[in-house]
Every structure is written in C-alpha cells, then in structure tokens.
Amino acid sequence: MLWLALIGVAVLSVIYFWISLYMSRIPLIQDRSRKAVFITGCDSGFGRGLALYLDSIGVIVYAGCLTTDGASSLDDQSTNKLTTVLLDVSSSQSIRNAYEFLKSCLDRLDLELWAIVNNAGIIGHFGTTEMLGREDYRSVMEVNFFGQVDMIHTFLPLLKKSKGRIINTASVAGLSSYATLGFMAPYTPSKFAVVGYTEALR
Prior knowledge:
alpha/beta; 53% helix; globular
C-alpha cells in the first residue's frame, strides 16, 4: 500500500509541475499598456500584495485603500503605474466617487478597465452565535458582501464595454463554518454569501 501511495504522490507531483510550467508561460495580460486593474482592500494583505505584484510586471493598477496611511505606504513602494484611490466599500458614495475618478482617468489616458478585484474584507468580532448581536453581523456583511455587490453594479458598465473580468475574493469559510470552528460567526455567512453571489453572477 505504501508503494501505491508513493506512486500516487509522484504522479501528482509531475502533473502539478507540468501545469505550473504551462501556466507560467501564459501571458497574464496581453497589451498591458492599455488595460487597467482596480483592486479594493489594498492597505495590507492580499490586496496590497497583488497590487505590488501587478505593478512590478507593468500592469496599470488602481489600488483602493481605506486609509491615507495605507495609500501613502503603497505609493512609497510602487511605480508611477500604480495610483492609489481612497475607498470605503461600505459606502455607496465612496464607491461612486472612485468610479468617477477611475472613469476620468481611463478616458484621459485612453485605457480600458480589464478587471476589478473585490478583495476588501473584514473579519469582524470573534465569538459564537449567541455571543454576538445583529450589528456584529451587519457590519461584516456591509463590507464583505454588500461592498462587493455595490462595486460590481457600479463598475459593470466599464467592464461590459471592455469585456473585462470580475474577481471576488472569498474564503474557505465560504465553504464550511468548520473552517473557523464556529468562532467567526459573522465572517462565515458573509463569505457564503460571496460564493453564492459569484455563482449567480456567473
């Protein structure tokens, strides 16, 4: 039985190697000079990392940051192809302001919006269901779920025009509440909602 397991691991390793090699040769974005990507939640974590990575390979990036400190820090580490935008995805007005700013930039520079990456999210308060109240759930849903819905509805005209992409960040918590051991009660349903909405959108 052990030798069968070893053969299985070897076969999977070879398959993984060839897929990785193939994927690495596919251009991430062709004609990067005219295509822009808008990412939310770039103050830290995955959003910041993605913004810096895309910037490093020459993609035009608009990085939504909640705080001026986050925006300033990102500006210091990026090239002039990255532009920070103050954005609070729990505010429809803030999203609208970001849209108007981005649209004016795209028009002025003759660019198209290739993708939006809905990455902004919060964990909220830790606790089991009975420890938390309605507002604990509402505040997390406003950012993690309704923020994504609002972003997509607002930016959809630009994405339809460019035949662009929508990338929604979810979590393993969006597949099972056991992933958080039940101690992230507001976070888990917000990610379930993201998964369901993304499937409906598709």
